[in-house]
Design a protein that fits this description.
It is a single chain. By secondary structure, this protein is an alpha/beta fold. 40% of the residues lie in helices and 21% in strands. The strands form 6 sheets. The chain has a 7-stranded mixed β-sheet with strand order 16-17-18-15-14-19-20, sandwiched between helices. Strands 11-10-9-12-13-21 form a 6-stranded mixed β-sheet, with helices on both faces. Strands 7-8-22 form a 3-stranded antiparallel β-sheet. Helix 9 links the parallel strand 14 and strand 15. Helix 3 packs across helix 4, helix 4 runs parallel beside helix 5 and helix 9 crosses helix 10. It is globular.
Amino acid sequence: MTDKITVAGVTVDTRHWIGGERVASAETFADVSPIDGRVLGEIARGGAPEAEAAVAAARDAFPAWAATPRAERARILHAIADGVEQRLEELAIVETHDNGALLRSHRRGVMPRVAHNFRFFAGWLSALEHEDFDTRGHTNHVSWDPAGPCVLITPWNAPLMLATWKVAPALAAGNTVILKPAEWSPLTASLLADIAAEAGLPAGVLNVVQGYGAEVGDALTSHPDVRRISFTGSVPTARRIAASAAANLTPLSLELGGKSPLLVFSDADLDLAVDLAVEQYDNAGQVCLAATRILVEETVAEEFTRRFVDKARTLRQGDPRDEATDLGPNIHPRQLEKIDGFVQRALAAGARAVIGGHRKDGLFYEPTLLTDVAQDAEIVQEEVFGPVLTLQTFTDEEEAVRLANDTRFGLAATLATGDHARAARVSARLVAGTVWVNCFFVRDLQAPFGGSRQSGVGREGGTWSFDFYCDLKNTVTAPKGWLDHG
């Protein structure tokens, strides 16, 4: 095994980053690009020994980092953001080769957001205060105390953005971190370790351990020295993590699957509604927040469908490095098989493909819209995580809300309507962590983010991130003169 690989001219270290040093493993796994099936390199495959070493490094580094003044922590986080911006093109290129998402999106949106994650939480840390309050003359002062080593387990669909969404607040809070990136897209996590070290982050404060799910994950999530676990991924994996963490009562933040609805009312701007619907194919449908269930008021369903088909057929699938490409490949053959399995079972059960319904060469799947689907059908109830949408109709507001809420998930919801009163009524009744009205995917880092039902546990973002990554303490002080005995 070579310690470093070159991806489109960018050098990436394939070893773990533990305690400020590169650490190899006896075994490796192949990292394959979804663009062309080329093996990008052999990656260090961690297990229990690497997990133990990373937790030990984080535990040892924690006291000094927790005691580091807020201003200094914030300075280092801004320096990391500087490093991200200086290497933005390299990060964008590597991530596109690693997970197949559009290079233009990485350049213009994703990597700038990575830098913003660090800048935002550095700034929020500086302003994090709670106004003291009085109880019968006693002063209550709330503080956010660093919790300790945090295990952060991140997915493959937006690797660096979702990793830094967790890493930045955890570090800002004064915690140390063990980051476990997804095995299908591990490379930018390694580059982040380099950037953090160059920014002056002390050894052991950020550790990166690579490997296949449970091989390293179980050892991390069951470790008694771990104080927080944040995970973004599937419901089955979350159940395993929760069971592993239960013995130590380790607090969890879980952002899980979704089967979100897009409700289109007859009073909506149909062109806007169609744009919102077609946008759900973004990242080849590999977005947990995607509104994959399109619910349209029946009086406009025919016209909506016609316009949707016209718009969707203009999407260009191809090489994600090409500026003209709208949809890149799905990430892995196993994921493509899963997507096609959902679609073929739905078609066999009576669904109709208005567009799509087939896999293409390589790891591409046609943008697909299925109609004639029952509410209890698998394709309506289960997360596909590919470019597959369903369309159902409703007759009134009551039925729209009932259909929208009729899954085990509750991550997000989108609605298109020209009636402000209706928007307020429907939004209030939808079960979702985020509701978008006449827009989609607008996320402010100061807002709470998370899911309801089986879409997750807890909220992160703004103060909610610090509430999770810290132990909140209330110090109650008696009135002045309490030691005076006359």
